[in-house]
Design a protein that fits this description.
Layout: H1 2-11, H2 36-42, H3 50-63
Length: 65
Amino acid sequence: VNDVLAELERVFEVRGYKWTHTDEQDPRGNVYMSGDQIKREFGWRPLVTLERGMELTAEWWKGNK
């Protein structure tokens, strides 16, 4: 999650953004992001990297305010 937030800061040019959260413990415990299961079960592969996908998203948002 921190990697995604850092990438959001980069593509939207908001370095050091103060992400808000509570101190409440997530009832699911630790949460991880992984595409391994969808790759294994469905053969899915991303067409672009996370970084490029965020850049494309940022370009779209900036052009479609």
